[in-house]
Amino acid sequence: MVDVSMTAPVAALAAAVAAGAAAVAFDHRDEPGGLAATAFMCAIAWWSAALFGEAVASTEAGKLFWLNVQYPATAVTPVAAVAFVASYLGYDAWVSRRRILALAAPLAALTLLSWTNDYHGLVRTGTDLAAYGSETVLVRELGPAWWVGWLYSQVLLVATFATLAYGVYDSAPAFRVSAGLLLVGAGAPWAAQFVVLGGGPAFRPELLFVLTGVAFTVAVRRGRTLGVTPVARRVTLEAVPDPIVVVDRSGRIADTNPAARAWLGDDVAVGAAVADALASAPKVRAAYRRGEAPDEPLSVEVDGETRFVSLSAVPLPTLGNRSQGTVLLLRDVTDSERNRRDLEVANDRLQTLTHALAHDLKNPLSVADGFTDLATAGDEAAIERVEGAHDRMFEIVDETLAAVDHPDPDADAEPFSFAALAEDAWRTAETGTATLTVAGDGSYAADEAAVRSVLENLFRNAAVHAGTDPTVTAVALDGGFAVVDDGPGIPPAERDRVFERGYTTADDGTGIGLASVATLAASHGWTVVAGRGRGEADAALDGETAAVGDGAAFVVRFGARPVEEVAAPVVADPDDLVAPSEALAAEE
């Protein structure tokens, strides 16, 4: 039998050590588990001090008083232990304030029952003083409420120590010693009670709180236990700017970090089914359900802005043969994805400019080649045509370079005469035996070089597809212009493909001209459409009605006026116009 005279000094020592440990914990109150550890050690200090009061009291009433003083500490200790271990191991999201209060409620009720035991006898059915040597101790006959409270406390403590033991096992080697100290120090008084209940030495297990306080102080002071937790949750979750969602093996969210909640919304809450919580990010949810990380970044709407993430699913370590779940890592790759897309657009634009340059140079080259023999023979008109073709080639090169260096040439555009520009474009376009008519004139403030390139391509297209000796009419319109021929027109079944790159119905066609027109127009914010000519230009800009063909009609609109209104004077059916596909228009 242990000499009970040792109870008072050892209890006083335990109270002092626990108070010191509580002070140490309070210094680390901002660390994970710091506040819970402070509450735990304060409760042990309270408990030990009240035990000292019980030991030195000489009357039954005095001992009962100090016994009741211990009960608040007995209610706080197991609940604080749960909260501390949960925070220490990174599971504090599971232990909310409401849950803490719910866990403490039964033990708080036991405290009230102990204080009012004289009225009901549910905690103690009887008490007496017994002499042990020169000392007396309080002997209790325990009632049903005490046993219920004791069993409830054991459930909390078993769960706490089992979780802490797993934390020791799962910790990095550098933290196992300090985590093990906490386990041994906190578990010693708990294990000692079973020794006493089993008929072992008669002593108060609470005296081992000395070991608890010492172990805790050493772990915090030497091992920096509260500075860096075993799973380093503060680093892996709270401080990481990318969204992290921890999913348990049942498919429910076990934890999240602030970035995940900011990106994916409040539905990403602990305990929610991950499939439901990711409703605001359907592409991420679909990838999670497939069980594989996608090769391409996924788009996520965050505060009305489209962001891009790469998704990684990292399995958690298994416990035995059972998976503990998965960590979903959503890495923000918005900047790199936008840079990649910008690069793709730049490459597409460069490719478009290359094709357009090659195609546009073909027109003046063909003209120069066609008039070279006549120029060699001394034909002055032919010499002028060759020189004009050479000048146009230099202009095309300069225009292409300007388009690369200044992608918005319309901003500083000077007004020009449409009729004069149409005549110049005709002279440098490969038009064979076709004839040009210009209907009306207008002054437009647009990129003159781009308009000329559009006209050259439309003129050459008409010369190739409108049959033998076609008449091509360039018409000035209110808000744009049109090029109409008197050929067979565009077959209705082919209209949707006429602007596609590579599409042509001519044996010697390249399929580039109309695609270049569509791309060039789109790059300047213009609209180009195709239809069938109406046979006359109704009230051209000079106020006169002009005869035009009833073949293919191409209309380019500059401003915001509806394109059907701009095209109405020259097309047979403004409601039947065909525009380039969105994909083609987006090449710029």
Q: Report the span from N to C terminus.
A: 93 Å
The total count of strands amounts to 16
Mass-distribution shape: rod-shaped
Low-confidence stretches: 227-232, 583-588
Top CATH class of the largest domain: Mainly Alpha
Biggest sheet strand line-up: 4-3-7-6-5
What CATH architecture of the largest domain would you give? Up-down Bundle
Q: Tell me what portion of residues adopts beta-strand conformation.
A: 5-15%
Output the CATH topology of the largest domain: Rhopdopsin 7-helix transmembrane proteins
Relative helix content: 40-55%
Q: What count of structural domains? A: 4
Quickly count the helices: 19
CA-atom Rg in angstroms: 44 Å
- Tell me about the largest β-sheet: 5 strands, antiparallel
Mean pLDDT, as a whole number? 77
Helix and strand composition category: alpha+beta
Q: Keywords, please?
A:
about 600 residues; alpha+beta; Rhopdopsin 7-helix transmembrane proteins; Beta-Lactamase; Helix Hairpins; 4 domains; rod-shaped; disordered C terminus
Please outline the helices and strands.
Blueprint: H1 7-27, H2 34-56, H3 60-88, H4 97-115, H5 117-120, E1 124-132, E2 135-142, H6 144-170, H7 173-197, H8 209-221, H9 233-238, E3 244-247, E4 253-256, H10 258-264, H11 274-277, H12 282-290, E5 298-302, E6 305-315, E7 326-332, H13 334-376, H14 380-405, E8 415-417, H15 418-427, E9 435-439, E10 443-445, H16 448-465, E11 471-477, E12 480-485, H17 513-523, E13 527-532, E14 536-537, E15 546-547, E16 552-557, H18 563-567, H19 582-585
Parallel strand pairs: 9-11
Antiparallel strand pairs: 1-2, 3-4, 3-7, 5-6, 6-7, 8-10, 11-12, 12-16, 13-16, 14-15
